[in-house]
Amino acid sequence: MAGKVFLIGAGPGDPDLITLKAVKALQTAEVILIDDLVNRALLAHAPQARVVEVGKRGGCKSTPQHFINRMMIALATQGQTVVRLKGGDPFLFGRGGEEMQAIQQAGISVEIVPGITSGIAAPASIGIPVTHREFTHGVTFVTGHTQNGEKPDWQALVAGGTTLVIYMGMKYLSAIVTDLLEAGMASDLPAAAIQQGTTDQQRQVVSTLAALPAAVKQEGLESPAIIVLGEVVRLARQEALSELIAVAA
Amino acid sequence: MAGKVFLIGAGPGDPDLITLKAVKALQTAEVILIDDLVNRALLAHAPQARVVEVGKRGGCKSTPQHFINRMMIALATQGQTVVRLKGGDPFLFGRGGEEMQAIQQAGISVEIVPGITSGIAAPASIGIPVTHREFTHGVTFVTGHTQNGEKPDWQALVAGGTTLVIYMGMKYLSAIVTDLLEAGMASDLPAAAIQQGTTDQQRQVVSTLAALPAAVKQEGLESPAIIVLGEVVRLARQEALSELIAVAA
Residue A203: is it exposed, middle or buried by C-beta count within 10 angstroms (0-12/13-18/19+)? Predict the structure, then answer.
């Protein structure tokens, strides 16, 4: 009898920001394929399970996607209950869609368990709501880089007037900011970068669009981080804002 | 000694799609202010708490926002631990930002606990990932109506090329679709409407942009529902797609 795969969102980092549904699935897991960015504290929910690390470790490259897919399918075909534990939400920049397709095509049952995405939780942790009636109609989540080097249509995104939340944007932050300024985004638009939001290692800077790359550099912020651009950043808590003053001084 | 307010996201409807952090806060609550759309099963985590209903019931209007704010502040000022339990995520179209500001301005401590938003979980429940590398750079979440009658810049949002997820769009669905067609969105773009996603009462239609209003009407779908527009809707599970065939037949 074939097993099953759960594609589970582990949330943004804080181990308490996982759902009850995910915990219940972890308790039934026979094997867990875990990404590098997932908090290991979550494995306490599944002491019975075998754990396979499939993320980047040290300087090594991450496990290729097709290898992960094949492993999930092989284990489930053997009848095992497989949990694929991914950071954030599996369906928001998590490649969960691709993994789901591969599992379905192999005729294996797959269940998606959503997770709290960093793009909402990291700003919230310093008091920034990604939407607010006074400021915007909505929020757009984009990735800062793509494998083929294509860029989002920054001009359209700026014209859209939504809060902009950028995932995986730290590596090319200066280029992204240059593009956004050229696309007409205000240089003094409030901007924040939040590294490892909701974890004990969280750090952030709150600045303006034009000043963000220098502020990030000065504070030594690195990936993984979430970038938030929009008037809503004005609502950041004073404790977070004080870092801006430190940077500006 | 002043109390505290937790602004908590109850998630999309499935009572297991709440976080451990939210459950722990519920266990400490002395009073809970609960919205109408929140699943009452969640109150089982807080048998000790007094419950105040502040959402729409029957034909009555919802409790005015300023009254909710005043009640939270008054209770916390009396030293109580207050949980404000809101559907989805408090910071994504939840007015959580406004409530946070009011509580902070009163000098009361406030903690935000993110929740799973329906705009991600409802599509996921029928196999739709809001992003997928093959189809789009990102996803935009907008509201279909605003109190002052202003509209999102549909033309810019269409040009942006992200998946479009519309909250509170059912009432003006026909007008929104007309606007989107005028803004250049393809009439045959895959489109879905998902009512009460992740609950036992979930229903959905999968269709195309131009055909969505008729499909929604034929199936009798109503608010609260999430509308998803984008190529990613092609990944909807066959069980969900069969309803499209029923509608088209």
Answer: middle
**What is the value of pTM for the model shown?**
0.95
Q: Which CATH architecture has domain A4-113?
A: 3-Layer(aba) Sandwich (3.40)
Where does chain B hold its CATH 3.30.950.10 domain(s)? 118-248
For A29, residues 6+ apart whose C-beta sits below 8 A from its C-beta are: A6, A46, A48, A49, A81, A82, A83
Interface check for A114 against chain B (CB to CB < 8 A): the answer is: yes
Of the residues B112, B146, B185, the best mutation for testing chain A's interface (the one with the most A CB atoms within 10 Å of its CB) is: B112
Range(s) within chain A of domains with CATH label 3.40.1010.10: 4-113
What homologous superfamily is domain B118-248 in, according to CATH?
Answer: Tetrapyrrole methylase, C-terminal domain (3.30.950.10)
Q: Across the interface, do B16 and A19 touch by the CB < 8 Å criterion?
A: yes
How many angstroms separate the CA of residue A221 from the nearest CA in chain B?
Answer: 24
Could you give the ipTM of this predicted complex?
0.94
The answer to whether A172 contacts chain B (CB < 8 Å) is: no
pLDDT truncated to tens, each residue of chain A (249 aa)? 789 999 999 999 999 999 999 999 999 999 999 998 899 999 999 999 999 999 765 455 667 888 999 999 999 999 999 999 999 999 999 899 999 999 999 999 999 999 999 999 999 999 999 999 999 989 999 998 766 678 899 999 999 999 999 999 999 999 999 999 999 999 999 999 999 999 999 999 999 999 999 999 999 999 999 999 999 999 998 766 655 444 443
Judged by a CB distance cut-off of 8 A, whether residue A115 touches chain B is yes
Beta strands in B15-158 (DSSP E): 31-34, 50-53, 81-86, 109-113, 138-143
